[in-house]
Specification:
Structural class: mainly alpha
Strand order of the largest sheet: 1-2
Distance between the termini: 39 Å
Radius of gyration: 17 Å
Strand content: 5-15%
Order of helices and strands: HEEHHHEEHEEH
Number of strands: 6
């Protein structure tokens, strides 16, 4: 299940920003996002999951990305709780705040493709607009159930289900294995 290469990239970045920059639990352990001097490198790594040639971010930009990640998390959490209307409202807020607008771009030897930039075209606003638009495309289709929050105990990392049958429930194979191992131990006890 793929959208198109650009939509896949911005949705992947949305997942990485949420999982990297929001506190909670990951794989059964408390998770605290990077702070201070580690934050710019973490944001850069998240952006490079969707665009390998993405440049580095400054400390102030990295701090702004944290706010974007928290807003994106609210959309994922709403879908996971079955409230697609709340997810759509959250994404609409992001679209309005960023001034997202479609634009055809051709760069780096690539053919023309659709980008979504914010009105001010700053790094943070441009990525936030793209991530919000990517989530809007998913939410506005019959694929909205593909956005999720891990159902493993003590894990709240988000994911996009790209499987053929759309039955993914976990953020990673490690969480899936933890749940299966616990169920096996419970059956044997």
């Amino acid at each position: 299940m793929n959208f198109n290469s650009h939509m896949d990239a911005v949705v992947t970045v949305a997942v990485q920003l949420v999982n990297t920059l929001t506190a909670g639990h990951a794989h059964g352990r408390p998770y605290l996002p990077p702070e201070d001097s580690d934050l710019p490198a973490a944001v850069t790594a998240a952006l490079r999951t969707g665009r390998p040639d993405a440049g580095g971010v400054s400390p102030p930009e990295a701090a702004e990305f944290r706010t974007v990640a928290e807003a994106l998390r609210r959309a994922f959490a709403a879908v996971a709780s079955g409230d697609t209307d709340a997810a759509a409202r959250q994404v609409n807020v992001l679209l309005a705040e960023t001034g997202a607008r479609p634009r055809l771009d051709s760069h780096d030897g690539e053919p023309w493709h659709l980008h979504f930039h914010g009105a001010e075209d700053s790094l943070v606003t441009g990525w936030a607009a793209g991530c919000a638009t990517g989530l809007a495309v998913v939410l506005g289709s019959d694929l909205h159930g593909r956005l999720g929050v891990c159902t493993a105990p003590r894990c709240d990392r988000v994911y996009v289900d790209t499987s053929r049958n759309g039955t993914r429930r976990f953020c990673s194979t490690s969480c899936q294995s933890r749940v299966k191992a616990a169920a096996f131990r419970a059956r044997r006890a």
